[in-house]
Amino acid sequence: MASPQCCANPPTLNPAGGEGKVVDSFGGIKAYVSGAAESKAAVVLVSDVYGFEAPNLRKIADKVASSGYFVVVPDFLHGDPFVPENTERPIQVWIKEHGADKGFEEAKPVIAALKEKGVSSVGAAGYCWGAKVVVELAKAHEIQAAVMCHPSFVTVDDIKEVKCPIAILGAEIDRMSPPEVVKQFEQVLSSKSGIGHFVKIFPGVEHGWTVRYKNEDAAAVKSAEEALADMIDCCSACAQQHHNGQTSASERRHRCSIASSHCWENPPALDPAGGGGDDVNDFGGQKAYVAGSAGSKAAIVLVSDAFAPNLRKIANRVALSGYFVVVPDFLHGDPYQPDNPNNPGMWLQSHNPKEASEVAKPVIAALKEKGASFIGAAGYCWGAKVVVELAEVHEIQAALLLHPSLLAVDDIKRFHVLKFITYSY
Description:
The protein is an alpha/beta fold. Helices cover 34% and strands 22% of the residues.
């Protein structure tokens, strides 16, 4: 049964809102669409009980579109959103006429229409009522990634049947999916081999916060933006891997290993001239910072986080212990820019850790050519995923992962070297 929280803070609907446009038929359904129609990656947003005209939902659609997606917000409620002022039709009556099973069936032609127009990766995000529609799509192999925001009507049995990577963004104050239920969802997902997942409970927020926040409430806006960033990151990770053709069972395990908003916090002031070592234009084909004795038989490769090689003090101290240290610029002069709020998803699509691990192999080969007999690697946040990839293919003798991101449990299972992992709690 629907909770009163499902209906709290109703939006003022605006049929003309948003930067996109309303089309009369997309897969047979009236819809709001936004973004580049030729994009190969699409996201379907499924509304809560207030429907596709909610201003904040359209705002979300436009922001997702600005990250490179074609976004569709279908009107699965057919112009009949819940009206809290109508006392003759309470939510218990309304919900009987708008079952999520109906939305699920109507979503299939929408997804088919996306594929017909050339889309190769489809993600779906659902809010409250819409989360039930999305989990049904995830159970039926209809989508490549699923995101549920403060879900309603979703059960543990639903989660057991999920067949694609999934992110669940829950609220601390939620009677429909309280934190203890969300944690049950997480336990089920953790026990499922091959299904990437990301589960997060946002402190101090209530059910519906992602789409029904008040613009004048700075804390609420910040939490909603954080949830949006997590959603985009999940879809980006899955779209990138789908685009790269990773279709084997082992590779599917990595999908939806997403970067949290923590990855982008406290950006450093970068200094290309810093450190006591040397900048070289070509070390194994990469621009790099190097420190330590070039004649050392032991070498360490440091792989940066999203903010590029700002590891020079660390490199210098490691070099003092007798190592030759290399800090390659695997970001190719393009670190993450925190002043671009739409950047996380786009940046991750352009900086795939798996691709960086391939670029790292010539760096390691260059170390061996100069006589290094022992090579370790340490990776920070984004860089930890690069190091894991190197460890899986016997490229290094030791690995250190510092506050890692983008990792799956199966990554660690395939480790072939001595490993150390540092984390905070």
